User: What shape does this take?
Amino acid sequence: MSRRWRIGLTSIFIALVVGPLLLAGFVAPYPYAEQHREYPYAPPAAVRFVKARPFVEVGGRWCEVRLLPGNGRLFGVAAPCVIFLSGTDGNGRDVFSRLLYGGRITLMTGLLSAFLSLALGLAAGVVAGYFGGWPDWLLMRGGELVMALPWLYLLLATRALLPLHISAVEAFVWPAAVIGAVGWVRPARLIRGVVLSGKERGFVLAARGFGAGHAYLIRRHLLPLTGSVVVTQATVLIPLYILAEMSLSFLGLGVEEPMPSWGNMLTEASHYHALILHRWLLAPGVAAIPVLLGFLLLADILLDRHD
Amino acid sequence: MKYLGWRLLHGVGLLALLSLLSFMLSQVAPGDFYSQLRNDPRMSPETVAALRAQAGIDRPFPIRYAAWIVAVSRGDFGYSLAYHSPVAPLLKERIGATLILTGAATLTTWLIAVPVGIWSAARRGKWGDRVSTVAVSLVLAVPDLVLAIALLHLSVQTGWLPAGGKISRGYAQLGFIQQLRDVAWHMVLPVTVLVAGSTPVLIRHTRASILEVMEAPFAMSARAQGIPSRRLLYRHLLPAALNPLISLLGLSLGSLLSASLLVEIVTGWPGLGPLFLEAIMARDFAVVLAVVMLSAAFLVIGNLVADLLLYRFDPRIRTVD
Amino acid sequence: MVLFLRYFGAVVLVVLTSVYGASGDALVLSGVTGERGGTLVFAQRNEPKTFNPVIAADAASRELIQLVMTDLIHINRATQLTEPALAKSWTVSHDGLHYVLSLRQGVRFSDGQPFTADDVVFSFQLYLDEKVRSPQRDLLLLEGKPISVRKLDSYRVAFDLPRPYAVAERLFDGLAILPRHILEPVYREGKLAQAWSVSSLPTEVVGLGPFRLKQFLAGQRVVLERNPYYWKVDQAGIQLPYLSEVDLEFAGSEDTQVLRFQAGQSDVISRMSARNFAALEKDRVRRGYTLSDVGPGLEYSFLFFNLNDLPEGASPEVVARQRLFRRASFRRAVSLAIDREALVRLVYLGRAAALSMPVPLGDKAWVNAKLPHIVRSLPQAHQALAAAGFSRAPDGALLDPEGKPVEFSIITSAGNAERVQMATLIQDDLKQLGMNVHVVPLEFGSLINRVFQTHDYEACLMSLIDSDADPNPDMAVWLSSAGNHLWHPEQKTPATPWEADIDRLMREQMITRNRDERKRLFDRVQEILMENLPLIPLLSPDILVGAKNGLGNFRPAMMDHYVLWNIDELYWRAEAR
Assistant: This one.
């Protein structure tokens, strides 16, 4: 299969998986905070097709599932029926809807912090590797310092400095920024290594001999060398940062209730009783797989320059 | 040699700077060790304040820092407020436990990941590669915390593995070989989780860097000259592809003390992890600082080893004086 | 022949004394039978930090200490009444200021040394010494003045109180009696705080409890062995405890505790969450354990608002919002809007009791039964708000009398999933009144700092656990001058007339010795609390425990220690061993 085809197919796959997350307000049947207190920990709905029309069973009754029922959402059932495609959580909130809204937040957090880490790491690694000397020393030792810091303390400290009320946007951006800012060191070290070896290569030395300036050399010859490391790191950092978001949510440093994120949803799901009695709460963990897989596969294709 | 000396000096400077920053952070983080006692209605605020004064926590920051520096120079790493005991004996018992775990996990990871990465790269584009790539991505997509709990749950249901801990009851009565087996049996679960978390990363890096090198002009020309691919792979490509791997090895060594923190807590492995987390939550600052310093020391040494190896083994880097 | 008889006699004597012979004045527990032998494994959540009863402040250390130490007068967790322990009887003077305790004779410590009144006097000297700063010292202060101890003779001790105290006997519960012969030298050197740390030798830790320390493995477990000098016997004269060994393992988290219990690796589990209880129910028959719901305990959770007098430079938003919080009608409306039944059902799966008073239901003898229950009523809440000058905007938001939308945050401990869930449910309840509420889970240290130190918060959802089924341990919460007067601690003079009333009533009930009179006073306190709602009561969770089938004499209680309080009576039935 030609490379173009594969890129196309993977992109469609990603669009199909990520699309519903971005269109959560439309695809999800319920708002993320709506509590159905008569249905705590309800198991996933049983959907049956009768004459090619979908029905869902609620308390012994069968209700029809309508497409575009006119409330601005993709599908739904008429009250007092309910449709919980992936069950409900302890407060009776629809897990499927929260999955979609939460996925948006988690994805953005992961992408934003990964982007930040890579941008900072690339800049630091190139400067350190190319110029050597004291910029190298400063960046690498500084990086060690950053890696060694007890980041838990740092997060607790910054939360204390922030006001009690922060807007939803700030609450999302701040942990992403912190994770991203702390994580630049690893990519920086790897890129530095590549640049160190790249700058001694024949064609680079030759170009220097011809009087090429630093910016040109970096842009034209060294940056391409870092390509594979950057892409690999990107595909590794995104799941890593989703896990970091989980830990933050556990300490009360993530997004604010009742806003969902895959991190805080999985924290509830990873408890012992949830694994025994309410396995459907693990939906975010399962949903993460195709999303991450899509990115990872795309990255692999991009890495293969020839077919 | 001179380089080595310089780097060690820098390492010490780094540790000093780190201790200063950590001290400063402790001031900013709200509350101190005795704050939690305020929540107990049976203790008066006066008692809490007196305890705080006794521990010297209410002294101004520069004085406390100076006192700490003096103590460290005498080999005294502080006093744990929670345990009412010097920090050093507390740490001694647990470092060994953590190192066994991370050592085994790191070894296993490298032994699995590098061959798989090479194999995958050699078969690039074919079925074997595709399958292994997808499998690797799948494992990468599962958060290790969830994996740890799921495995614990599984081991409880089947009884194949112990539900946490390091040794069984009656360990003292076992013979030496049986003791080793007991510990190894308890290690299976946490090591599996750690390996599952780090192997995919390493496989991807290995594969990527081998592929990278395969494209290089010298490789192409070697192939054109008819050098068989296996010899090409091991004699020429692998050494050149080592660059990012060596950096990663340095990072692996550097994180020997810190990588297993969460896993130890979930599986109840008596290493530094549970001690460190409890100390952070309780604001038992001496313990936190000691663990941070120790981890930083490992980091510095790990990076140093990586840099030394880089200069020695990558043929494209000339030694910088 | 004679020699043989003598030898035989000696052997018989040794056997008899080891099984039947407790030392001297043994306490006979009638109604208790069992068989000797076996090991009990119990998984603790956290590791003990010290074995020193004088300075131990954390729950895990105290749990362990209870098993190796004993007190003078003990509260029986099943009946909640005091009973003799090391003191076999006592007399009280008419004015209630002097107690004379007669100690058991012939009792020995776990290392064989004799126990006398000197040990009692020495122990209290340690607890009361200001330089030692024991957390227990505050318990022995009555209105700031310490009780004093005098030795009358080798087996009698007198306690003098600075003022009469209604339940002086209950003070002695949990105060371990320490061996003078071991700790006095250390105390004289001023190194008491370092004594009996976790790195000490097990043989150094000497006490009068049913077990003694055998081995401590850091991060993993503590092993205790039977104390051969224990001074209790059962109805047949067999020396207690029945168990030969107790293993305390450190699990690290509740999830791991539950896992180990389900796997059969631990034999008893204490205080689980309702969800874990439900999860364990599934495997009950297959794994052979029994789960018990003991009923509501001594914990009570509540919502409260920041009513502190904030200094200059405090956050202006908090100051502005306090104008709302200070209105009793506002607090009443919030209380009426909360759906307590939903909290019980959704958070605790029905295993909790909704509260109408900030007094835990485990304390049922003290709850004012004449006060009406709080019934959720949104219309009444709306009325209360309207009467106070609140109005609704066209979009449904609630506006305060100055026309600004009502918005505030509730802080709670992030590590406690139940409280976060309660806060989220309350957030939704209050939304129906038009209030915009934010839930801010904070790490525990940060939470405590805000509530007690900086007073930089708006509302807080918290819970307290009473240490005894009596109003007195909570004095520090009700007295306006005390440190745990959560909504406005450490007042120099009472800020409101009703707080002054509560101060007066609580001080009076503390010295009144007639129980009915005390109840009347405390009932009046509860009426005042209901009218003013400084703490909006929510619920009292049930105590949920479990034990393997085959564990005899297992009688879980709703007071600490829920499952091991009678560890000296627990035994393994023959079929389980």
